[in-house]
Amino acid sequence: MELALYDPEAGYYARAAQRSGRAGDFFTSVDIGPVFGELLEIQLAEMAGLLTRDKLQLASCNLQVDSFDIVEAAAGNGRLAADILHAARRRDPAFYDRLRLHLVDASPTARAAQAHVLGPGIERLASSSADLPATFHGALLANELLDALPVHQVVMRRDGLREVYVEASRGALRTSEGPPSTPELAAYLDRLGIALEPGWRVEINLRAIEWIRQAARSLARGFMIVIDYGHEARELYSVTHAGGTLTTFARHTMAGPERPAEAPAWLEDAGDRDITAHVDFTSVRVAAEAAGLTTIGFLDQTYFLMGLGAATLDVSDLKKRLALKTLLMPGGLGSTHKVLILGKGVGAPALAGCSYRMRVT
User: Fold this and answer.
1) Which of 241, 259, 297, 344 has its CA 20 to 30 A from that of 314?
2) What span, in angstroms and rounded, lies between the C-alpha atoms of 106 and 63?
3) pTM for the predicted model, two decimal places
């Protein structure tokens, strides 16, 4: 996955500024239209207001009271950030003037396109990099990042846990099984109390745990909003997903997880298709809390957006009405995508995004 997705020369994400949308391989909430960014702006503005209430605490931390950092991880060419900035400039100019935008993406091609996509919002861009800022005060947004981080795939056999490896043979890629590359894989399952049955195949995303720990260190004070598709560990590592969740997308066609006796689809056309696996939100949340963050909410995207006023938006425009329906529809983006909201040094405020219903389906 690391090579196929992120290799500087051959990687799927490294070679293009944008991979999603009608002309791409899959759809995200950002592709539906600007309404997703408009609703996120409401939540970010509320978070900014909460941070400025205690100016004495901010001053004691030597932090700027008048600025609010928005850090977007896996920002791509900046389309979501552009939608958020446009909404802020129109709805709350004072909030817009406080913003310091940091766009983080591994692809140099995507980063090179950000200035054009941001348009007038380029004036709020403080940094564009492959790495998170060393420190920031505000909110970090990660929309569909964790599912694209490289995972380990393991399978339980009667003689114990085995890891799936990829090797090249006669110009083709194939999989093989061997001993786990690190004892952390078995420890990961043990911490969750997961006992895999023989034949069960699952993915373990150690990189997601590393990322959330790093993000927690970088966040001086503020919030994180993590949006992705996935499950609690008890569901992800159960008979329901005993074939694994490693999946590939190309030209809006999904393939995988692989079926017995067939080569996995994610080995085909390496570098020319997306590869993804469902997120274990239990382990991400536990790692975040161990790193000093507080869980404020975990809920379906539908209920998050409803709390932000999705039902009260002016949808007289047909295109906007259809976009909102796509974002909220059960069985689609609204229920497959979960929203994890974390805080640091902010207590447990009653956020608008958590006001409608705290439910995970």
Assistant:
1) 297
2) 28
3) 0.92
